[in-house]
Amino acid sequence: MNSFKVGLIGLGNVGSRVWHNLLTHKELLTKKSGKTIEIKKIAVRSPQKALKVGVPQERLTTDWKEIVDDPDLDAVVELIGGIDVPYEIITQALQKGKDVVTANKALLAFHGHEIASLASKHKRRILFEASVAGGIPLLQAIQDGLVANRFLMISGIVNGTCNYILTEMTNGRMSYADALKKAKEMGYAEADEKLDVSGEDSAHKAAILCALSYRFWPKVGEIYTEGIESVDPFDIQYAGELGYVFKLLAIIKKHQGSKEVEIRVHPTLLKKDHILSSVSGSFNAVIIKGDIVGDQLFYGRGAGGDPTASAVLSDLVELARYPYVECAPRLFFADTESEYKVMPISEIVSRYYLRLNVVDKPGVLASIAEILGKKNIGISSVVQPEVSSFAQGVPLVIMVHDAKEKFFQEACLEISRLPFLKCKPIVYRVEDFHVQGE
Amino acid sequence: MNSFKVGLIGLGNVGSRVWHNLLTHKELLTKKSGKTIEIKKIAVRSPQKALKVGVPQERLTTDWKEIVDDPDLDAVVELIGGIDVPYEIITQALQKGKDVVTANKALLAFHGHEIASLASKHKRRILFEASVAGGIPLLQAIQDGLVANRFLMISGIVNGTCNYILTEMTNGRMSYADALKKAKEMGYAEADEKLDVSGEDSAHKAAILCALSYRFWPKVGEIYTEGIESVDPFDIQYAGELGYVFKLLAIIKKHQGSKEVEIRVHPTLLKKDHILSSVSGSFNAVIIKGDIVGDQLFYGRGAGGDPTASAVLSDLVELARYPYVECAPRLFFADTESEYKVMPISEIVSRYYLRLNVVDKPGVLASIAEILGKKNIGISSVVQPEVSSFAQGVPLVIMVHDAKEKFFQEACLEISRLPFLKCKPIVYRVEDFHVQGE
Ligand SMILES: NC(=O)c1ccc[n+]([C@@H]2O[C@H](COP(=O)([O-])OP(=O)(O)OC[C@H]3O[C@@H](n4cnc5c(N)ncnc54)[C@H](OP(=O)(O)O)[C@@H]3O)[C@@H](O)[C@H]2O)c1
Ligand SMILES: NC(=O)c1ccc[n+]([C@@H]2O[C@H](COP(=O)([O-])OP(=O)(O)OC[C@H]3O[C@@H](n4cnc5c(N)ncnc54)[C@H](OP(=O)(O)O)[C@@H]3O)[C@@H](O)[C@H]2O)c1
């Protein structure tokens, strides 16, 4: 039996489960890949921790260069996180003729194009199934199972931390701070939660999804990104009364005929009976709309050591099974000048939830309606939720029909200047992406 | 650019959409597969129909042997349905060194083992993504994306016709006959609906799922199969009042440590808030529980010309991309003596819904409870739904805790002999397979 020799860099949450599951599933993986996949060497920062995981001392090093330079290894698995060191590791590994597996969405979002080109130049492969939606084989579905389709939409919940927090805020009526605290206690949020709650992590994943489905890497800065830190439980409650649920969504859409791709991350209102609304806690779910296949939904654990290790191992099996084939441009995006680009957020069309806190006096609604009307923006409903304190003024929730973002934001700016406004308008986008046959 | 030459046999619902979508997505597919996939020859039974689809006369033949014998073709796509002729086509094509793509679940369920062995012997590939759950890349997920996992369960709705009928019976309170009629009018049921409504089609798909996940082909006759023809709207209603929904499920389960695999198809009661309960109309959805990855759900269109063509085309792309690799035993099950076998239905453990129509007199429930009690079968609830007519006796719905099928059936047999019973006991299994984190 041939052996497929792997060097592993990083033995944290994910790395330690890759090591563990490869041991406990050794026979199965050998049968399924036709080779014995062996982790020959592991680079760690703290050998003490590694010994506790059960890794034999002789396989350990604290210098990742030893792995990248080892001519005996077929592939390098990078699982340390961050950007600068992984960039060094991966580019050097490819240059030295090694295939690469990584779960590092941040690195790919910033350097994906360059890394993919480098891989292609050196006739090596870089696989990263674990980087989006953890254990769900979503990238494979886009690249292989749904390969015949043009993608009209790829949208969903790709950050379990945010989904957990929003679920707690909704079901447990918690404040953002309390829900975040609970998420940390439960291990669903990192000590430094910034990357998750700011929406950045979801934007990184959106960049990868965009690259695979539309063959171009958007600049991270071009992706409109709004996090959940300032979501107010009041709005969750008001939206709930109107039949909507808050979800942090990554949304990628292309309209037939257009060369521009919408790509954006923000808290979004979804109808309660929408299939994504029932995805709660730390789960992920993504809808893919293909022009031939119609709507599909993929649901599962998007993070955690084991689910993520499942995806890393599937990448290793793929590498072990198939030699590099020149004519199989699975990651062809690096070589192709895509005809697409990012649509500026000002150009998108959406429905909106608008909450204004106003001084309660006659004529207020009329002035607001006039401003919206001038921009040709239709109001679908107005609610004045009951509140116990009027210190912040009276809340007014206005649901708005489809409007171009630019015009809607202009209207909001004008509204924000009205004398009777007690604070800045609060705005959320509303999505109805229809899933056929629901 | 190399070309990958295909012969297509059968130009019906699926075949005509394969032809159409290959034309409309030619450039995309060429980019993605690195070769031009070309349908060089098409065998049909009725050339007139084929000309209407827009196929040029010179590519048509009415003799499939011309395709199988053509030394210039790389692959044969079989899309005629049935068993005998497809068996001839596929075995001959493999023997003549051609790769094969098919959507034919019936053929695979009966001859899958032999065909897979033959493919392996001739170093050819047979791909059949479209045979289960249509456009959903489920077989690929099992074989590739989730390859590192031991499967604890694969269960779901794999027949859109039955799901459509049950949905109509539930939401529209229709009789089976009316719902079937509507399904035919809507194009969701064939003129001859037998294979679908009897559960056989789902059993065929279960056999394929079993082969891919447990590496053995169960005999079709070993799969416990019950259809939806005799589901009574009364039971749908009673179950609804108790918080359950009827779904025709294919259930495949393996308990840790056991060498026996449960594999069965039957109408099943699911809690209304279970994620599968919200899958309505002609949609399919399958839950996969992997020992590393946890629970996943895949949802989409399980039938229809386009979704099925999407899967056929993805198989063609895979064939075009990768040459046959000896060490890549994606379909290794043919060569492996599996250690598993089918668990007899009498050995499964399930909860049950039991409806009895009885003469309404004292002592009835006591006698029934005594029989169940003797077998150590616990009752979780008893309801006596209101009815307008007592001609059939008074219905008594009993929900039963987990029990071994054998003992439960013995109890039912004994109950059926009680003098006050007005008709045979009606029995349905109840599943709670827990999806984590729902
Ligand atoms: N956790 C998840 O659920 C998940 C899901 C999807 C993707 N990912 C991605 O997977 C990657 C790893 O995540 P993780 O959760 O496993 O992170 P982690 O628990 O922080 O593990 C990273 C490990 O790498 C080690 N390390 C850091 N620098 C190193 C160096 N120069 N040489 C050798 N080892 C080094 C760290 O050592 P110390 O312990 O000494 O700091 C730590 O053990 C990240 O890119 C992350 O975004 C994670
Ligand atoms: N339809 C779906 O949604 C779906 C989904 C999954 C899998 N499948 C599977 O896909 C296969 C095809 O299904 P389908 O719905 O496309 O069936 P279909 O509409 O009945 O098409 C079959 C076609 O094959 C032709 N044919 C029959 N015998 C032939 C022969 N000896 N030589 C050449 N052509 C022949 C038929 O010609 P005539 O028109 O002259 O009879 C017909 O046009 C079946 O195995 C089915 O189980 C279908």
UniProtKB/TrEMBL annotation, chains A, B:
Native organism is Candidatus Methylacidiphilum infernorum
Question: In the UniProt record, does the keyword Oxidoreductase occur?
Answer: yes
Which regions span the lipid bilayer? none
Family matches, as Gene3D superfamilies: 3.30.70.260, Dihydrodipicolinate Reductase, domain 2, NAD(P)-binding Rossmann-like Domain
Q: Which EC number(s) does UniProt give? A: 1.1.1.3
Name its pathway.
Amino-acid biosynthesis; L-methionine biosynthesis via de novo pathway; L-homoserine from L-aspartate: step 3/3; Amino-acid biosynthesis; L-threonine biosynthesis; L-threonine from L-aspartate: step 3/5
Query: What is the protein name for this chain?
Result: Homoserine dehydrogenase
One family name in Pfam for this protein: Homoserine_dh
Q: Which SUPFAM superfamilies match?
A: ACT-like (SSF55021), Glyceraldehyde-3-phosphate dehydrogenase-like, C-terminal domain (SSF55347), NAD(P)-binding Rossmann-fold domains (SSF51735)
Q: Return the PANTHER family for the record.
A: HOMOSERINE DEHYDROGENASE
The main enzyme category here is: oxidoreductase
Q: Which residues form the ACT domain?
A: 353-429
Tell me where on the tree of life, at the top rank, the source sits: Bacteria
Q: Which family does it belong to?
A: Belongs to the homoserine dehydrogenase family.
Alphabetized UniProt keyword annotations = Amino-acid biosynthesis, Methionine biosynthesis, Oxidoreductase, Threonine biosynthesis
